[in-house]
From TrEMBL:
SUPFAM superfamilies: Winged helix' DNA-binding domain. Residues 10-108 form the HTH hxlR-type domain. This is Transcriptional regulator, HxlR family. It comes from Chryseobacterium polytrichastri. GO terms for molecular function: DNA binding. It comes from the Bacteria. Keywords: DNA-binding, Transcription, Transcription regulation. InterPro entries: HTH_HxlR (IPR002577), WH-like_DNA-bd_sf (IPR036388), WH_DNA-bd_sf (IPR036390).
Length: 114
């Protein structure tokens, strides 16, 4: 089967656009690890600002990656949960974590050899 390089490039660009930026994957990872409330997510990601997290969550909700549930408690309780669609990205994140661990190992070992 012949590969369609134009389509592959478009798919890669879509993926890179989606995961682009410093915070998207850490936010997805935090939510998929059970952090549901805004402050829980924020505390689980060192260095993220409130404004940036708010922007990421809105963008992720628009892209059907998280569902925002509002409960009419006092005060109002808001939870963010990953959609099934978001969970399909979990395998990619897992592979990225594995690659990052291996890359760090290769770089650290290489630095000790010289």
């Amino acid at each position: 089967m012949e590969r369609d390089q134009t389509e592959e490039l478009r798919a890669l660009q879509d993926t890179l656009y989606f995961i682009g930026g410093k915070w998207r994957i850490p936010v997805i990872n935090a939510i998929c690890n059970g952090n549901k409330r805004f402050r829980e997510i924020e505390r689980s990601i060192p260095g993220i600002t409130t404004r940036m997290l708010s922007k990421e969550l809105k963008d992720m909700e628009m892209n059907k990656l998280v569902k925002r549930n509002v409960y009419p408690d006092t005060p109002v309780l808001i939870e963010y949960v990953p959609t099934e669609y978001c969970r399909t990205f979990g395998k990619i994140i897992s592979e990225m974590i594995n690659w990052g661990r291996e890359h760090r190992r290769v770089i650290v070992e290489d630095s000790f050899k010289h």
